[in-house]
Specification:
By secondary structure, this protein is mainly α. Helices cover about 55% and strands about 0% of the residues.
């Protein structure tokens, strides 16, 4: 099969046609940068504040589960 148009420079096909190696990543970075930034900001909180937040959220979850 012969392509109708030449390969655009910078594409995988162009690289292979010009005897270069083309490496395609097999794993995508699907990081949610906004959520990561929020999580990192929480990790900078003192441990006592984190513990009290955890207790509050777990007790509210327990109350919801009882209903």
């Amino acid at each position: 099969m012969t392509p109708l148009e030449g390969a655009a420079k910078g594409t995988d096909r162009w690289a292979v046609e010009h005897n270069w190696v083309s490496i395609t990543p097999l794993r995508l970075d699907l990081t949610d940068e906004a959520d990561l930034a929020r999580a990192l900001a929480l990790s900078d909180m003192p441990a006592t504040k984190m513990a009290s937040k955890r207790k509050a959220s777990s007790s509210s979850r327990k109350k919801r589960n009882r209903r």
